[in-house]
Write a structure and sequence with these properties.
Order of helices and strands: HHHHHH
Number of strands: 0
Strand content: under 5%
Largest sheet: none
Oligomer: single chain
Length: 161
C-alpha cells in the first residue's frame, strides 16, 4: 500500500481511541501489516531498493534518489494531512497524528533495515515480507482499489465516532 493509504487507515483506527495515544500507536502500527496482506499497488522507486537482500548503504545522491525521497515524502505528508483533516478534533489531534505516523513507520523501518539488517529490524523485516501480499495490482485498478479501501475504512471509522 502507499503511505497515504496506511496513514488514513492508521488515523481511522486512532480515531476510535482518541484518549489513548499509546493504543493508537500500537493499533496504527499493527494496521500496516493487516492491510499489506491485501493485494495492492505500490509506486516504483528508481534508486531505493527494498525487499530481500536489498542494500542501500551505497545509495548516492542523484536525481533518481532525490525524486524517490521527494515522492515518498509527499506521499507521507499527504497521508498525514488527510488523516488529520478527516479524523482530528481538538481533543484527538495527537492520537490521530500518532496513529497515522505509526501506520507508516514499518515502511520507513524497511528502508532502515537495508542500511542495518540486524537484530529486531531483521525479525520485523522477515515478518513484513512474510505477511505482505505477493499479488500486485496494476494500473488504474491498483490505484482505485486503494482509494476505495481507504474511503471505506474512513466511512466506517466515522460511523463509530
Amino acid at each position: 500500500m502507499i503511505l497515504s493509504t496506511h496513514a488514513v487507515v492508521g488515523g481511522a483506527v486512532a480515531s476510535l481511541l482518541p484518549s489513548h495515544p499509546a493504543a493508537a500507536a500500537i493499533a496504527g502500527f499493527a494496521s500496516h501489516f493487516a492491510i499489506d496482506a491485501i493485494p495492492h499497488w505500490d509506486y516504483p522507486l528508481r534508486s531505493i531498493r527494498l525487499g530481500k537482500g536489498a542494500n542501500n548503504r551505497r545509495l548516492s545522491v542523484s536525481t533518481a534518489t532525490l525524486t524517490d525521497f521527494a515522492m515518498v515524502g509527499f506521499d507521507a505528508c499527504a497521508g498525514l494531512g488527510l488523516a488529520l483533516w478527516m479524523f482530528a478534533t481538538e481533543g484527538s489531534f495527537w492520537a490521530i497524528a500518532i496513529g497515522a505516523f505509526s501506520a507508516m513507520l514499518p515502511d520507513a523501518l524497511q528502508f532502515v533495515h537495508t542500511l542495518y539488517p540486524h537484530g529486531l529490524l531483521h525479525a520485523l523485516q522477515r515478518f513484513h515480507w512474510w505477511i505482505h501480499s505477493k499479488r500486485a495490482l496494476t494500473g488504474v485498478f491498483g490505484v482505485g482499489s486503494q482509494l476505495a479501501f481507504a474511503g471505506m475504512i474512513a466511512v466506517l471509522a466515522r460511523s463509530f465516532q
